[in-house]
Amino acid sequence: xxxxPGTAAPDFELSDQHGAPxxxxxxxxxxxxxxxxxxxxxxxxxxxxLCELRDNLAVFEDAKxxxxxxxxxxxxxxxxxxxxxxxxxxxxxxxxxxxxxxQAYGAFLGEKGFATRATFxxxxxxxxxxxxxxxxxDARPLExxxxxxxxx
Length: 152
Description:
This protein is α+β, with helices and mostly antiparallel strands. 32% of the residues lie in helices and 25% in strands. It has a single domain, classed as Glutaredoxin, CATH 3.40.30. The protein has helices at residues 24-28, 44-55, 57-62, 75-85, 100-104, 142-150; strands spanning 13-16, 21-23, 33-37, 66-71, 91-93, 108-109, 114-115, 117-122, 128-134.
């Protein structure tokens, strides 16, 4: 079960697609963060979802909310995918220990070895403000992101 709104968001540090460290508490100093867990880079469903977010990045930028993708892929796979798709936001590698951050957020599917499609809007105070998830084969509607941001 994913973390519920009102829960303290677990802090973490992961490498982004360029190998740069990303620490949640440091990112929150600049404003709220949306963590978008997804199963795998280069998969059709994930690509469709993240391309929709890429094409609507202004929704996040206008609200001063940082968009961040997280998967169990390596930073090398994430970099190749980000470059191919021109993603203008960080993609974090929850590669090793395998899926540890997804597990901390209740988004890891242990029997499958990857994260489900779960989203967490973390307020600047480090509290989960909104959370929603769908099955691995389903897409999260952009309207869910808009509603979460509007409620900040």
